[in-house]
Design brief:
6-stranded mixed sheet; 3-stranded antiparallel sheet; alpha/beta; globular; binds ligand BES; binds zinc ion; about 375 residues; single chain; Aminopeptidase
Length: about 375
């Protein structure tokens, strides 16, 4: 009780409101560099990743505090939900011919504008909570008078909830789930711990959230009725160690939920150099990645390439760790991505929604192809 009172107390230091306790809390941190997870202050985990970023290297961490550890490979039922992707035929060509043109990149741009107009979407700030509620309302607005759609807030041990919108499957395997998601929170790495930080997070990751919302809108507007259940997720607390997605993926695994495929969209708006879509090859399923590349060639028809994050850089790593198949298409190579993320300069003006269109198309192809039994 005392501990949580201290953690929630805020003090005013040099003009910035800091959440007093949270940066000094000891957490179980996995830095993804091969060293075993260890207890350290959240502040020190952040300086590790900030120092690396400033030195032009990429590094991050996964906050494993309170999360279960799994033996690998995943035991039990989850394994049996793996689809045979190698031989899986593509069957949604006709549907996609008529639905891909319904995608409207200007809606994605409008959503990014609205989301990035918040002071921040920090996982422990009231702005972050409001942004999550705003996203939930958008899902609800888009699915009015649909009784096969459910929109839920998924709460965590911190203030910001994640959001999950589901379209119920209609087939005999309706208990199987296909997920598309991205994180809703934002951060300013120079103001860790401040609930009043300026963190517009237009590219990181209003772009991914807006893409998820647009895929949801088009699926509904086109009258698509999936065999499997489709879930559209926006995760809380990614920027502080993948907290929201770990809670969700680990809960799903504990409950034996059969998630057959997960697409992670984190940063889709900034055109780096060269390939338009870059598939990350670490902490993902190679089979699902290959299948998604086939969707690129068949339906999206823009150039793609591959790269590595080199660490658990986003929420796909949470799913992967829980034994599920995930894929992460990214805006650019690591060396040509948007260098203004985690600052006040991550603004919509740097983004190109024609570049982002490839991710909207890929997301729609992914959800429709994988949802049919
Ligand atoms: N969107 C970034 C991850 C990213 C950045 C991927 C650049 C590829 C290129 C993500 O939101 C992020 O910032 N992640 C943290 C790690 C997190 C687990 C603390 C990071 O990269 O420091
Ligand atoms: Zn991100």
């Amino acid at each position: 009780m005392r501990g949580s009172l201290i953690a929630f107390a805020s003090v005013f230091i040099s003009g910035i409101v800091f959440a007093a306790g949270e940066m000094d809390e000891f957490r179980l941190i996995d830095r993804g560099d091969g060293s075993p997870p260890r207890m350290m202050r959240l502040r020190d985990a952040f300086s590790f990743s900030k120092t690396a970023h400033e030195a032009g290297r990429c590094a991050g961490f996964m906050d494993l505090t309170g999360q279960p550890t799994f033996t690998s490979p995943a035991p039990f039922a989850v394994e049996s939900f793996k689809l045979n992707l190698e031989d899986r035929p593509l069957t949604q060509g006709l549907y996609l011919d008529s639905s891909l043109p319904l995608i409207d990149a200007s809606r994605v741009s409008d959503t990014v504008k609205e989301l990035s107009a918040n002071r921040n979407r920090y996982y422990r700030s009231e702005y972050g909570v409001q942004a999550a509620k705003w996203i939930a309302e958008r899902f609800k607005g888009l699915s009015r008078n649909r009784n096969d759609v459910k929109v839920e807030l998924f709460s965590h041990s911190f203030e910001q909830p994640s959001v999950i919108a589901s379209i119920a499957g209609q087939g005999p395997h309706r208990n199987e789930i296909v997920v598309i998601g991205g994180h809703e929170d934002s951060i300013n790495q120079s103001a860790f711990g401040s609930r009043e930080m300026h963190a517009p997070g237009a590219d990181d990751n209003a772009s991914g959230v807006a893409t998820v919302l647009e895929v949801f809108r088009v699926i509904l507007e086109s009258g698509f009725k999936p065999d499997r259940t489709l879930m559209f997720m926006t995760y809380a607390g990614e920027e502080v160690g993948l907290l929201g997605s770990q809670d969700i993926a680990n809960r799903f695994r504990k409950e034996g939920k059969s998630v057959v495929a997960v697409m992670q969209l984190d940063m889709t708006g900034f055109p780096g150099a060269g390939n338009q879509v870059v598939f990350m090859t670490d902490n993902v399923s190679p089979e699902l990645t290959k299948f998604s590349q086939k969707l690129m060639d068949t339906y999206v028809r823009v150039r793609w390439g591959t790269d590595r994050c080199g660490y658990a850089c986003s929420d796909h790593a949470s799913w992967n760790r829980a034994g599920y198949s995930a894929v992460m298409p990214f805006e650019a190579t690591m060396s040509t991505d948007n260098k203004d993320i985690h600052t006040t300069r991550d603004l919509i003006g740097k983004l190109d929604f024609n570049h982002g269109l490839a991710f909207m198309k890929l997301g729609l192809a992914f959800m429709s192809e994988l949802s049919m039994e």
